[in-house]
From TrEMBL:
The keyword Transferase applies. It holds the Pfam family Acetyltransf_1. PROSITE patterns: GNAT. It comes from the Bacteria. It is an enzyme of class 2 (transferase). Transmembrane segments: none annotated. Gene3D superfamilies: 3.40.630.30. InterPro entries: Acyl_CoA_acyltransferase, GNAT_dom. Residues 87-236 form the N-acetyltransferase domain. This is GNAT family N-acetyltransferase.
Length: 236
């Protein structure tokens, strides 16, 4: 049974601890030590890790540095509906926006973010979309318009290794549209899109300092499930 979800490429690894009842601290340490050895042997640029803070001293002793803490929220997707809305939304696969324009929209939405994690270059993010979501990745990339103006983007998908756990690769609102309550509405529409993908549950996370995103989770009836530290180690 896997204790970590891992996204690998030649530039970085993203590792997320899977909380499994009955698994001991030593079992997590043993599996992560093997994973870390493989990372070091392959000389990958950096490894970013989400792991419970109980392991912090152990991780710091191995050369990791603490970046921040994320709050993880969840919701059962039982009665998600698409209510009447002023938003128009499209998938990138429809062809009305180019990949380059979507990359620009992504970059705009993440500007001024309260999240403390070190941002990846947008080129790496766009490459990761096709790697992690597959050949039809454009069908997961949505952008939202109101009065013909871009308001935000979201990228819903089913978590790897599961058949019904909905996630968002990214969710963001353009800076000029923040604080108007529009983010909660777009987030709610994206929960409906996840339900259409046959997701039965939703899991989302954000930095502890991102009060706007935490309020969106709460407004859409998500409940806190866990807290994890964000840790990073770079190649020597």
């Amino acid at each position: 049974m896997r204790l970590f979800n891992i996204i690998k490429n030649n530039a970085y690894w993203l590792v997320d601890q899977i909380k499994i009842e009955g698994k001991s601290e030593e079992e997590y340490k043993e599996e992560f030590t093997k994973l870390l050895k493989e990372y070091e042997e392959q000389k990958i640029e950096y490894l970013s890790l989400l792991m419970e803070e109980d392991f912090e001293n152990w991780l710091l002793a191995k050369g990791f540095r603490r970046i921040s803490v994320i709050h993880e929220y969840t919701k059962a997707l039982e009665k998600e509906q698409l209510n009447e809305s002023d938003f128009i939304f499209h998938a990138l696969s429809e062809g009305s926006m180019t990949d380059e324009e979507f990359a620009d929209a992504y970059e705009l939405c993440r500007s001024g973010s309260a999240n403390k994690n070190i941002p990846q270059p947008i080129e790496q993010i766009m490459a990761a979309l096709s790697q992690e979501l597959g050949d039809n990745w454009r069908s997961h990339c949505y952008y939202f318009l109101k009065d013909n103006e871009l308001v935000g983007i979201s990228i819903p998908y089913i978590e790897m290794g599961t058949t019904d756990e909905g996630r968002m690769f990214y969710f963001g609102i353009v800076p000029s549209m923040r604080g108007l309550g529009l983010g909660a509405e777009i987030h709610k529409i994206t929960l409906y899109l996840l339900k259409k993908m046959n997701a039965n549950t939703y899991v989302g996370s954000t930095d502890e300092s991102n009060e706007h995103m935490i309020n969106i989770f709460k407004k859409n009836d998500c409940v806190i499930r866990n807290k994890k530290g964000i840790y990073r180690i770079d190649k020597d």
